[in-house]
Amino acid sequence: MAILQQIKVPLISINDTSLTVVDILFAHGALVKMGDILLVFETSKTTYDVLAEIDGYIEYRCNRETDYEVNELVANIYSDENEVPEKVVIKYEANKVFSKNHPSSDETMPIWHGQTFFSPAAIQLMELKGIGSAAFIGKDFVSLEDVMQLGKITKDQEVQASKQIASLPVDMEKVIVEKLSSNKKREIAYLSSVQSAGLTSTINTSVNTDGIFVHINQSLKHLKNSLLPVFIYESARLLQKYQPLNAYFTGDAIACYKEVNVGFAIDIDKGLKVLKIANTSTKGMKEIEQEIIELSNKYLDDSLHFNDLADIGFTVTDLSAEGVAFFTPLINMMNSAILGISSIDEKLHRCMISLSFDHRVTEGKLAARFLKELKERVESYQSKYYPLLNQEIGCFKCFKLLQEDLSDTGFVKCITPKGEEAYICQSCLKGF
Amino acid sequence: MLVQKINHRLIKQALTIRTVEEKFLSLFSEGKLNGTVHTCVGQEFSALAFAGQLKKKDFVFSNHRCHGHYIAFTGDTRGLIAELMGKASGTCGGIGSSQHLCNNNFFSNGIQGGIVPVAAGYALGNKLKKNGAIGVVYIGDGTLGEGTLYETMNIISKWQIPLLIVCENNFYAQSTPQSVNLAGDIRARAAAFGITTFQGHTSNPEQLLHDAKVAIEYVREQTKPCFFLVETFRLNPHSKGDDDRDPEEINNYRARDFLHIFSKDFTAYYDNYLAAIHKEVDDMVNSILPEPEQAMDAYYQPPVSDHNNNWRPLIGINKRQVELLNNFFKQQIVDNGRMLFLGEDILSPYGGAFKVAKDLSVLAPDKVFSTPISESAITGISNGLALNGFKPFVEIMFGDFVTLAFDQIVNHASKFHHIFNKKVTCPVVIRTPMGGKRGYGPTHSQTLDKFLVGIDNIKTVAINTFFDPAIVYDSILQEEHPVIVIENKTDYGKKILHHQAANFVYEINDAPFPVVKIKPVVSVPSLTILAYGGMADIVNNILSDIFFETDLKPELIVPSLISELPVDIIIQSAATTKRLLVIEEGSAFAGIGAELIAQVTEQMDIKIRIKRISAYAVPIPSVKTLEHIVLPEKERIIQEIKAYF
Fold first, then answer.
1. Which domain, by its residues, includes A26?
2. Domain ranges for chain B
3. Which residue of chain A has the CA closest to B517?
4. Closest CA–CA distance from residue A158 to any residue of chain B (Å)
5. B305 to each of A222, B302, B564, B577, how far by Cα in Å?
6. For residue range B216-235, what is the model confidence (pLDDT) as tens digits?
7. Is pLDDT at A90 greater than 50 in this prediction?
8. Which residues does B622 contact at the CB level (< 8 Å), separation at least 6?
9. C-alpha span between B163 and A420 (Å, rounded)
């Protein structure tokens, strides 16, 4: 008698401590062949097929549409038909979560759904390293050591990066060597985290910017003629739909952020940093603009808080002020994608946008759909009447130009008292 | 010329006592006896008059000069000789020897005054059992210098305990005449407590035997104490060669010695008896000489430290600790026939300084004894009650006062079982509250646990606020040996497991004296803390602060049995954390932290960081600000952790 294969609930995403069995493909006790799909799990994000690794007789210890905890035994494959026991079903109790009132005494680590406490030293390092609290889901306490432990790979990469640089020959007569700052080293390490795997890709598209600021500028107070707020605003809305772009690769799983926190890259002599607009998908364009201003001021004043840097799920980097035609943005640590905004080509009335994404988390098709939808959404701000705006249309009474009008209702064609064809604005027509 | 009418059986007994003791002296000279011998040559009739005239059910407590009393009461000459020759067949297996004998209801101990309250307790036990048995306790005139005698005389008179105190006055300390040390009148001392007194002299055995019988009957019939002063003279030195008394005085007394006169007047009888006794004693000695001594492993086996590792979750109880203690005692005082409760000011409605004894005297008036301020006597009485089969719980009102009972704890309770070669157990329980933070000042706040845990063969337990103290007290009920329980003044009013630090798991093991473990829910801890009693509650309240302030994830281990620390559990934790901190409310030097760290260091193969935080080594001030500095508290604990680890 032998159990040839034990099938336990796998850990697929750190957010999912239990999985649902959505499909059972054989009858209890049936003969299965190596490579057969035995059952299908569903996580909150995806489905997962469980394959037979060997020929044998299957014992199902689970039911369809039932939740099972990670590591719970859900099936066995036996060498002999007669060994398969009568069907036993162990149902996962939804409330069997760990709480402090009913602590487990088992030696196995309990699953913690409660609060996570961070020590000040841990927070400091997390701020420094830009590590979000999401990295510690399921932990009760996070100390400096825990953060260092998490950053170990990064640290190794840092060392590796510096080694690589050091390994190149240096002829002091020909070059001036300036040591890397710790900020720069960190930056290399963070960007290496995703890029070093070599599984990133960038797709580009252009956005027609003709007449785009007519409406956008109406919503903005300080950042007029800037596309950053609108891209942040629209990306945030789309990310709710495109969850793999608001996620990261953990090494053996994909962690999807529950909230949409879009960050924007900033580098004004104080090092490259990504600042977080928390809960971006719930904020209006004016609020987003306001936060960009406030966060930038904090960045300049060195008064950023840990929370301003942590738990960013998607980054937007705007190089439009630098006359860039297009570029390949690099994905930040614990992200799966980044959006780059290039400069507006004034002649062609367009701007290139680029999306780099992590192939381990998603694929080109999804990224392309996201980018296309984003382009369409942003282009929808274009005024349909834009060609008219180029003409000198003014109110014959108050001389206000159509371009200056903020009411968005347009002027009315009329006959002046002198019997000439002209335009009149809504204010002059209806009175103030 | 001898005019006394004495039964020759008694003369032979007196001669036996003298012969045995003289044999001891010669054996000692030959190097065949270990230790010391205190003979009663010249005092034999005191033994015969009292110990010799008791009933079998009665008892005798004696002192260092106890051979005569022993032979007179038990007749076990062989057991006595074998005992002094250090043989396994001795009455106490050679463990107790000359001064520490035990056979049936005979007990002796080498401490002077301390045996008196123990005898009083034993006698009280007989009174409670209503078995008609009485007891005699022999003291010497030297014992009159010890205070516990007077504490006990007050109590036996007040409680009408049937105990006959026989004071053998041989007018000398070891060699110092009584006039140097003793003031006032001896009988008047007892009379002052309302105790009936008698007086006699061993030079008049006929009268002494008669009067002793009268005294014994008085005690038995009246169920009252009695004090009998026996004047006598020791013809031999205190021990062996230590005699500076005037030889002329000694010769004078020797001439008046009854056996001496008898040998002159009835030489033929005397010689005849003596020859027979000599032969008997010599034969005994010759047969005992080749006998084996007791093997060490029969006497002592090193304890195996293997602590319980079955952990279960702790559950809070919405009751104050004092309420749970009171409930336990209320139930036991009614249900448990052996249980007695003693202490100062414990009668209802007051119910003791901390109300643990509330209503007990209403529920069981015969089993609850409100005592005078006599810590030594009431602890001794409890020891005696315990020897007599009871389970006495004695309350010492403040932990600081436990020092007044120290002789009873160290020289009596802790030793009885072993010195009497495991013939007896002494399941006494001493409860006392310790700890500061109440502003009671230097003599009412100190934590003296380190002095107690150093006493061998006594369990010292510190209860805490994490579980029902009844768990500990239920285990104590099963204990055969003495237990000291340290309660904490500030814990009495706290509810059980009232505060649970967020993200920590609270667990308790299945041990009779459980260990509590408080650890992070999922994280591997990085600092092992040991605290117990009241300090455990303080540390529990700052676990989160310790994490936030020091970046270390604490695991708090709280033993309740502090005289046998759960070293294996602590090592298990410290092996992971590599950091061990002991926080104690007493001062550090030679304290529990020192002991624990010594044991951990002995047993661990890896080096870890170790630290103690304790009270400063000064009397605890009353003034709040200073009291809170002297005793370990949050700020200091965190600061010291930060600075050290």
1. 3-83
2. 8-290, 311-488, 497-644
3. A105
4. 25
5. 74, 9, 8, 22
6. 999 999 999 999 999 999 99
7. no
8. B439, B440, B441, B442
9. 138
- Pair A398, A366 in one domain: no
Considering only CB atoms, B551 lies closest to which of A105, A114, A144, namely A144
Percentage of chain A beyond pLDDT 90 is 26
Q: What is the dihedral of CA B459, B460, B465, B467, to 10 degrees?
A: 0
Per residue in B477-510, is it b (16+ CB within 10 Å) or e — as a string? bebebbbbbbbbbbbbebebbbebbebbbbbbbe
**CA pair distance B381, A64, nearest whole angstrom:** 74
A103 at interface of B, judged by CB pairs closer than 8 A: yes
Instruction: Give me the residue from A112, A119, A139 closest to B551, CB to CB.
Output: A119
Given a contact cutoff of 8 angstroms between Cβ atoms, the answer to whether B460 and B428 are in contact is no
Identical fold, B8-290 and B311-488: yes
Residue A15 has pLDDT above 80, yes or no: no
The DSSP call for residue A257 is: P
CATH number, domain B497-644, options 3.40.50.920, 3.40.50.300, 3.50.50.60, 3.30.1360.20: 3.40.50.920
List pLDDT tens digits, range B8-60.
Answer: 999 999 999 999 999 999 999 888 888 888 999 999 999 999 999 999 999 99
Residues in chain A: 432
Strands B483-488 and B459-462: parallel
Residues A211 and A330 placed together within one structural domain of the fold: yes
* Residue A44 lies inside a defined structural domain of this protein: yes
Instruction: Pick the residue from chain A with its C-alpha nearest to B506.
Output: A103
A191: closest CA of chain B, how far (Å) = 29
Classified by CATH at the fold level, domain B8-290 comes out as Rossmann fold (3.40.50)
Predicted pLDDT at A388: 59
ipTM over 0.85: no
Which residues in chain A have their CB less than 8 angstroms from residue B507's CB? 103, 105
- The structural domain count of chain A equals 4
Q: Where does a domain end: A127, A148, A167?
A: A167
Phi, psi dihedral angles at A326 (to 5 degrees)? -165, 160
- Judge if A238 and A372 occupy the same domain: yes
Measured torsion, CA atoms of residues B341, B347, B349, B352, in degrees rounded to the nearest 10 = -70
Residues A247 and A363 in one domain: yes
Write out the two tokens for B604: 């661990």
Q: Are B216 and B210 in contact (CB under 8 A)?
A: no
Compute the nearest-CA separation of A244 from chain B (Å): 29
Tens digits of residue pLDDT in B52-99: 999 999 999 999 999 999 999 999 999 999 999 999 999 999 999 999
Same domain as A345, residue A206: yes
> Which chain A residue lies closest to B545 (C-alpha atoms)?
A119
Return the structure tokens found at A432: 């103030």
**Strand ranges (DSSP E) for A11-102?**
18-24, 31-32, 37-42, 47-51, 56-60, 66-69, 73-78
Within 481-500 of B, beta carbons closer than 8 Å to A belong to 500
Look at residue A107 and tell me if it is in a domain.
no
> Is the pLDDT reported for residue B327 higher than 80?
yes
Question: Residue B522: which of A105, A115, A140 has the nearest Cβ?
Answer: A140
A156 falls within a domain: yes
B311-488 sits in which CATH class? alpha beta
d(CA B67, CA B80): 8
Whether residue A178 lies inside any domain: the answer is no
Residue A226 amino acid letter: S
Whether this model's pTM surpasses 0.80:
no
Contact at CB, B502 and A122, closer than 8 angstroms = no
A134 with A220, same domain?
Answer: no
Exposed/middle/buried for A165, CB within 10 Å: 0-12, 13-18, 19+? middle
A405 and A262 inside one domain: no
If asked whether residues A366 and A345 sit together in one domain, one would say yes
